[in-house]
Please model this.
Amino acid sequence: MTWQPLTWAALLSALIIFGLRVVDVSLATVRVLAIIRGQRLMAWALGFFQALVFVVAIRQIFANLDNIWNIVGYAAGFATGTVVGMWLEEKLAMGYTHMRVISPGRGEVLAGRLREAGYAVTEVAGRGRNGTVNILNLTVPRKQVPDVRRIVIDFDPKAFITMEDVRPVRRGYFG
Model:
């Protein structure tokens, strides 16, 4: 493999491969998250299109193995596709998030505000370093996380919030 001069044809080929890899890896990122969340049909559809795009990209590479710029486009598309896939998954906000809010002294009223906004809240009394705290547990669709965070921060700026993705198994109230 040799470094060839960067002609318009070589650049165009590399850019096509770059674009195909961005699409391929972005789909792969979202597909893996769909698998984790148990969304079979979405995972299947994304896997189908991901494989289709990959085959087209790899065919382009093998058609010009002596063009180093295609390989650079392939690697750059993979790296960029990873970031684009993460951004895309964040925008799609699939699934549910469990939020734990620890509020020193304002938890009961905060729980009431969250319930008024339509969220199901489970309260637990706890003891922190500086005394009694209220621990509020909520499981909400990921798209609603910014709204819940805004309510919590506006009402209790000292609240400690943690979040983790969850996969609801059975029953419950999801506002």
Q: What stands out?
A: DSSP finds five helices and four strands in the chain. The chain has two domains: 8-92, 96-166.
